[in-house]
Structures are given as structure tokens and as C-alpha cells.
Design goal:
Two copies of one chain form a homodimer.
Chain A (H helix, E strand, L loop, with lengths): L1 H4 L11 H12 L2 E3 L6 E3 L1 H20 L3 E2 L5 E3 H6 L1 H8 L4 E9 L5 E13 L4 H11 L8 E10 L13 E11 L2 H21 L6 E4 L11 E8 L5 E9 L3 H6 L2 E3 L5 E3 L1 E8 L1 H10 L16 E5 L4 H19 L2 E2 L2 E2 L2 E3 L6 H9 L4 E5 L1 H5 L2 E6 L7 E5 H29 L1 E3 L3 H7 L14 E5 L4 H11 L2 E6 L7 E2 L6 E2 L2 E5 L3
Parallel strand pairs in A: 3-7, 15-18, 15-19, 22-23
Antiparallel strand pairs in A: 1-2, 4-6, 5-6, 7-8, 8-14, 9-10, 9-24, 10-11, 11-14, 12-13, 16-17, 19-20, 20-21, 23-27, 24-27, 25-26
């Protein structure tokens, strides 16, 4: 019974959420910091999750006709020169390649040599270099639309880094499209937002709010930035994906012109959209508990781990042969486009073995010993239940219902997260309550403080700025799906015609 | 008939092989040069081929327990300092990041700022950074073996670049393993060579010779470099994959030590192995003809293109509905782990349409018009036959036999390439013939000159160096599968106990 009260992760979420986050990653063996400042090493368990995310999203993209391509890692400095606003937002903190050689210096150390005539920037995002390609690929309306996606690494020289959430190098996909009409480009940007929402909600089991960013929070150079926002267990918001309608801004900077059906030379309308390894951070902070991460079954690197129980060598032979047979059966079952993924952990029984798979978040743990075999049954633990809450199933029933059980876990994770968000989202219409809500010291019930505040905003950047400065609270989004309503701005009290989500954010 | 004699690519292979290569890539729309020196843009048709290559290899790796992970793009300069021999061979020509900021200068241009205390190298290969991780991950023999693979971009500052064959940035996989025993590491290095040979022969349809590199040609720091070598249509060799047994060299440089079963602290034995987008260049130069590339069916981005033939709108409706139905049927068929990939080209009938798919190398082109539909038949062109050689099949037969036909094309491509290599590989045992063979001016029959010479070599680096200097001919490999034989060195005439493959190479 002691394992039921002891937790695998120290500190607990309650004790120190940021430190819990680091410890969960360590305990699950998903990733670690590298000797290169701000860059992470994604270890096999973390990378296998990313591969499943990539495969799922990639299939969604391809189903709607988006094609993958690959563009250079380096971007000539002059490309940034073209896009003033973009640089302002992005290019300031980036890795700059200035030399193309190493030489042995007089004291025997290696030093850079071969200075480049023009420095190269390691891509922080690829609008400029892809825009340049589009300008060559497009000459007539018949060449449009172009819908391209790239899976790549990008680099942004972040000052404070945290594995998955904010790293100097990260992995992502960036989609870039060019269209003959404004309407078509806007439609695509909205469509991609729906693809992301579908992926994050139905595969990652993370509920999201779809919305627009305010002008202040937009991607540099975008006319409109759409986003999905999720609430983490510490009630802070995480931006889980963005889709940008870029108008003709990048088309003008990159000279993406075409001859339209009337024979006129006009600029294209472009979009870009991306999600990154940051989502993994969001997954951990949404589903993790004090025993480690919980993997949503539809993306989990392994669906089930089989744990043989035996004392004597002849027992081992018998148990292992039973397990081999069972794993074959399970692997022949398909679950969301992949065969059921089975791990078999033959290590000695003991404290570490079971807990390792709990910490890694494997949806199902199955113990099988001689007594189970005698009954043709298996002893199953679900990761969404307490570690010691295990149930015996007839083997046949377990095999037959495994996809339903996985889906039940998936649903359970989503519903927990949704219920958490709902209980920490409140409508606030007066300034004092709003300030108290985001200032735990001002209240007698800190446990219900913080989260999403749904409040009126007049649309003035100045009110937004003041709130950010005073409370470090930002407008996460102007939600898409809610009817407009009349009210007064939570900051200045002037009339407002819509409500927005305010929160502290990652 | 005119299309039968006219070729789609100008110049032909005969006229100018290097230029033909560039034109084939352009005509197939696979890739293009980018504005960044030596870096390519891989366009959707080329990238889809790469994706199929990746998927196939990745499945092979996973089947033998290799796990994917991801390591930083940047490597601290000090890591190179540790590995003198490695640096000598590699790190001299590489991209060096020295700054992490851009600033607007007085005259309004962007300039690098924020100089790094220690420069970072953009990875040319990851032995050093992965070795550093292994040194932290390994402490006991129980932690071994570690078998890791990474799909990544790497950068080597090449002076002369050529799309796919030699580019500043390229995509590859690099496998890295650490073992408790020398024997196990050697075995793994040989095993990976076999995986590569299997992939390149059975999927890319490129016959290869498996062998060892001479000490001179080894990977810097390796004890043994194994390779597969292929012959291109211009009879030059292309190294198509390498697998290195690194002994304890990198383990010592990176301090990968562990406690063995006897309790002693010892160094691990490591390997590394990789293939890259260079293989795409090899594919083009092996299978391309004067009409464009020919895609081996098992990796082709599309297996079949359906080309509707119609004149009137009502014909179009009828034909397109027939084609939709047929494509559904075809897509339900599986071929080497992927569903049959079908393209439908609705553009107007005319010169360009059919030729576009020939230039792209699509294995099967299927024309369908009202008359074909009346007969319930389809009109099929195979990419390994002449463009105008088309055959009518009953639709039912076509569907039923499509995987056999694809495999017939696959086999045909392999056999053509094998026969080409065989007819241009000769055993030479005297120096004059050897020199004439590699000096077209010395002979009356230049069309049979060049290729692979299979000759005795005494094992002296000096003989190898002389031959390289005088003829630009290198030892491609010491083949694995041939019994040793007594003879005399082709260069110095001293006794030799084995034969090797000599060739000019990419």
C-alpha cells in the first residue's frame, strides 16, 4: 500500500510546479539539456512521441493536398533586410554564421577563419527564403495555389530556456501557402487552425480555445494571427499552434507576383502556420501527475507494456512464451493508423520496473505470472488510475477490448483537462475582481485564483499594455465561436463590443 | 512517331553527362539551387522520394531495435578540439556561428552583434556531441548496447557543389552505437552495411559492391570503414553508404567508460553509419535516361498517373467518373508497405502532359478515353519502355496485375544497372592496360574505357597515392565477398594477396 501514497516525482505539482516539470521529463527519460546552451537532446522515448505526432499531422496535411518540401537552413542576411517588421519581431535574436572554416592557431587551439562576405542566419522561421522560392515558382494564376509544408529544425536565441517549452533549437513544421485571392488565403488559414485544433484535441487530448490574436500579439508581418490556446495544470495558458494570414505583406517583400485571369500583374496572398516540439511541453503540463507523464493513447510511443512475473527458470520459459504469443496478437490490432505498440520488460521484478513505465506514462501495464496463465487471465493497470488499482481480465476479453480501453483512457484525459479548464475560467466584468483574480496575495482563497478570465476589452492596445505591465497578464485570444456582446472594458471602462480571454502564459 | 526519336532532355547523356544530370533534375522538378551558396531546395517531387526512402530505411532500423533520437544542431568548438584526427578530416570546412544577434547599424543595415564567448559549429556529423551524451548515459555494462539513429540536416562547407551529390547542407541519417565488446561492435557495423546493401539494391534498384575502404580512404578516426559502391552510367563510382567501426577512439575522446561484468572500468566500442540525400543523385545517374529520371517503383512518389482523354464535356464527366472509380480501386492495393499512389492529371491533352510524367519517371502512365471505357480497357505506358510503346489491358487485368508489373519494372531497372556495371568491370593485371583503361586518349575504343578495374594492390598507401595523383583513380573498396588470391601490385609490381576495385569516383 505504501506505493499508493508515495509519489514517483518529487517535488509534487502542488509543491513546485516548474521543478516538477523538469523532474517529470527526467523521470520519463524523454529529453535532457545538452552541453550546448539552450539546446535539448530529445531521447528515444520523447522522440518516439514526436514521431507519432509528426506522422499524424503529416497525414492530415497530405489529405488536404499539402506537399512537403525542404528549404535551406541558412538565410542570407539581405533577406532579412527586406522585411523590416519581420526582423523587428524575430531576427534580432538568432544564430549568425560568419565563418566557413576552422584553423589551428599558433597556440594549437582551433579558431574560426574564412570569413563570409555576407553573414548567414540560421533560420528562425522560413517566410523569407520560401517567399523567394515562391517568387520564382509563380508567374500565372494557373500556378496557384501553392501549398507547401516543411518539417525542420529552427533556431531562436532565447534568453531563458526550458526543455520543450522554449529552446534555442526546436523541431517544428512550417506550412507556407500562396493564393490568387485574399478570400482563399484567409480560408486556408482558418482551415489550418481547425486541423491543429482537431489534432491537439483528438490526439493530444488537450482541449483548446480557437481565437484571433490581438494586433499586438500577432506574428510580425501578419494581417491576422489565429491561435489555439490551452490551459496547463498551473492555470497558465500555452499557445499550442498558430496560423497566420499574411495578406500581401510577404508577397510584396519577396515579390511574389502573378498574372491574373484578366492579364494584370498582381501580388499573391500568403499564409503560414506551424506547431513545434513545444506541444510536448504542453502535453506534459496537461496530463502529467505526481507519478510522471501520462501519454495519450493515440500518440503514445507504446500502448502497453507486458511485465512477466516469475521466480524459477521453468516459470520464466512458460511466462515468456505466453507473453510472446500475446504480444503477437496485440501487435496485429490496429489503433489509429498504427499497430498496437507493445513493450516487454524482462528485467527483474522489483520496485523500479513497474514504476518506470508509470513514470513514462504508458497507458496500460499488464502483469502476467504463472497464476494468471493458469486462469488464462492478465492483470491490468491503467495509467489514468491509481498505480495499485489493477484489474484482472480474461486474456480474450483484454485482447478484444484493448482499443476500447485505450479510447476510454484517451477520453478520460481529455475530460479531466476540459473540466480543469472550465473550473478555472470565469467571466469577470469588474476591474477589482479582475486584479484580485490575478493577484493571489489579494485574496483569501488562492486555490481558486488565476486561470482564464473572460472579460470585455475595448480594443485599445494601451489597455492591453497596461494590464500586461501591471499583472503580466496578456490577451490570449479573441475567441472565434462566441457571439459579440455589449459591455465595458475591464481596464478603462469604455464601451466594448466583445469579450476576450486573459491569462498568464508560457 | 516524332516523340519516339526526340528526347525530352537536352543534352543527352552521350552529349554531356554532367549537364544532362542538371537538366534531368530540372525537368523532373525534384530540386533546385537556392540563393544560399551550395544549399538546395528539395521540391515536392524530390522530397516525396526522400520521404519514401526515409520510411523504408527507418522501418528496417526499427525492426532491429535501433531507436531514433535528436541531438543539437550546434557543437561547441571545444568538442572538436578533443578529436584531433576527426577535425583534420572534417571540421576544417564547416559553418561557424560566432554571434547571436543582429543589430541595425548606423547606415541602417543589419550587422551581427552579441559575440559568443565560444563559437559553435553547425554539425558536419555528430560523433562528438553524441559521444558526449553516451558518456553520461553509460555507466555499467547493463546500459549497453546503445543503438541510436538520428534523421537530421548536416553542413559541410564544400567548395564545388552539385545538387544531391555534394551540397553544403544535406539531409541524412546517422546511426551511432556503443557496445561492451569489440566483437559486438564490429558485428553491428557489418550488419548495418547489409541493411544498406539490401535497401539500395532491393528498393533503389542499384546494384552495389560491399567492401572495406583502405586506411587512406577511411572516415577520420575510424578503425574500419565499410562501404557500398555503385557504378553510375558514366562508369564513375558513387559511394552509396558507409558503416564505420570506430574502435575505442571516439569512446576515449568522449570518455564513454563503463564498469564491465568483472567490475573493471573500461572504454566502450562504438560504430557510426549513414546514408544521405546523395543517394538521390545516385538514383538519377543510375536509372535516368534521355527522357528524364526513372523512379524505381518501390520508392516512387507516385506509382501510376491516370490521364483522362476527352473532347466534349459529357465525355469528360464519363471519363472522370471512370477514373475516380479506378483510382479508388488502385489505392486499396498495397505495394511494399504503401498503398498504390495514384496521380490524376486533368490538364488538357497535349504535348506537355504525357511528357511531364515521363520526365518525372512515374512507373506507369495510363490513358483512358471514351473508347477505352467502351471496351473496359486502359492504355498503359511503362517508364522502362519507349514512350510510345503502350499496351491496352482489360481494366480488370490491369488492376489485378499492377503490383506484378511494378515489380517487373523494378527488376528490369536493377538488371539493366547490373548488366551495365558488369560490362564495365574488368580484371586488369598489367600496368599499361590499367593506365590505358583510365586514359581515354591512349586508346582506339574510348567507349569501352573507364569503369571499374579489378586489380591487385600490395597494400602500400604510396601506390594508392600515386595512382590517385596520376589518374584521379581511387581504390573504391576491398571487396568482402571474394577469396584472396596471389598476384602482383598493379602499380609497384610487388607481391599482393588480394584484389581491389579501382575507379574514378564522385
Amino acid at each position: 500500500m505504501s506505493t499508493q501514497t508515495k509519489t514517483a516525482i518529487s517535488p509534487t505539482r502542488q509543491e513546485d510546479y516548474p521543478e516538477w516539470y523538469q523532474q517529470v521529463i527526467k523521470a520519463s527519460d524523454m529529453a535532457e539539456n545538452s552541453p550546448v546552451r539552450g539546446c535539448m537532446i530529445i531521447k528515444p522515448w520523447g522522440y518516439a512521441l514526436w514521431e507519432n505526432m509528426v506522422q499524424t499531422l503529416d497525414t492530415m496535411f497530405k489529405e488536404i493536398g499539402i506537399k512537403n518540401a525542404y528549404f535551406p537552413l541558412f538565410i542570407p542576411l539581405e533577406f532579412f533586410q527586406k522585411e523590416a517588421e519581420h526582423v523587428e519581431g524575430f531576427a534580432k535574436e538568432c544564430a549568425v554564421v560568419t565563418h566557413h572554416k576552422l584553423e589551428v592557431s599558433e597556440n594549437g587551439t582551433l579558431v574560426p577563419s574564412g570569413q563570409l562576405a555576407e553573414p548567414l542566419i540560421v533560420r528562425p522561421t522560413s517566410e523569407t527564403i520560401i517567399g523567394d522560392a515562391f517568387s520564382r515558382w509563380v508567374s500565372s494564376y494557373r500556378d496557384l495555389p501553392i501549398r507547401i509544408n516543411q518539417w525542420a529544425n529552427v533556431v531562436r536565441w532565447e534568453m531563458r530556456t526550458r526543455i520543450f517549452l522554449r529552446t534555442t533549437e526546436f523541431l517544428w513544421q512550417e506550412g507556407h501557402t500562396a493564393h490568387a485571392s485574399e478570400q482563399e488565403a484567409v480560408k486556408l488559414a482558418y482551415h489550418m487552425l481547425n486541423v491543429y485544433a482537431n489534432f491537439v484535441e483528438n490526439y493530444m487530448a488537450i482541449p483548446v480555445i480557437k481565437g484571433q490574436k490581438t494586433p499586438t500579439e500577432r506574428f510580425p508581418g501578419a494581417e491576422e494571427t489565429l491561435c489555439i490556446e490551452a490551459m496547463m495544470q498551473d492555470r497558465k495558458a500555452l499557445q499550442a499552434g498558430t496560423s497566420h494570414f499574411l495578406g500581401q505583406n510577404f508577397a510584396k517583400a519577396s515579390n511574389i507576383q502573378f498574372q491574373d485571369a484578366q492579364g494584370d500583374q498582381v501580388y499573391a496572398w500568403t499564409t503560414s502556420w506551424g506547431v513545434s516540439t513545444r506541444l510536448i511541453g504542453g502535453l506534459i503540463m496537461t496530463h502529467g501527475d505526481d507519478n510522471g507523464i501520462i501519454m495519450p493513447p493515440r500518440l503514445s510511443p507504446a500502448h502497453v507494456v507486458l511485465l512477466p512475473i516469475f521466480r524459477k527458470p521453468d516459470e520464466k520459459t512458460k511466462v515468456m512464451s505466453y507473453i510472446e504469443q500475446l504480444s503477437k496478437e496485440l501487435r496485429s490490432i490496429s489503433y489509429y493508423g498504427r499497430p498496437i505498440s507493445v513493450e516487454i520488460d524482462e528485467r527483474e521484478i522489483g520496485g523500479a520496473r513497474g514504476w518506470d513505465w508509470i513514470k513514462k506514462g504508458t497507458p496500460l501495464r499488464v502483469e502476467i505470472g504463472p497464476r494468471d496463465i493458469a486462469n488464462d487471465s492478465v492483470f491490468v493497470g491503467r495509467r489514468d488510475k491509481e498505480p495499485n488499482e489493477k484489474v484482472s481480465f480474461k486474456r480474450e476479453v483484454f485482447v478484444k477490448t484493448i482499443t476500447e480501453v485505450l479510447d476510454d483512457i484517451q477520453r478520460n484525459l481529455y475530460e479531466r483537462a476540459l473540466s480543469h479548464r472550465q473550473s478555472h475560467t470565469i467571466s469577470i466584468q469588474d476591474k477589482k475582481t479582475f486584479y484580485d483574480y490575478f493577484t493571489p496575495a489579494n485574496t483569501t482563497k488562492p486555490e481558486i485564483h488565476g486561470g482564464f478570465a473572460y472579460s470585455h476589452w475595448c480594443g485599445q492596445a494601451e489597455c492591453e499594455r497596461q494590464i500586461k505591465e501591471e499583472l503580466t497578464v496578456t490577451i490570449r485570444c479573441i475567441p472565434l465561436s462566441v457571439p459579440k456582446s455589449q459591455g465595458t472594458c475591464i481596464y478603462c471602462g469604455k464601451p466594448s463590443s466583445y469579450e476576450v480571454y486573459f491569462a498568464k502564459a508560457y
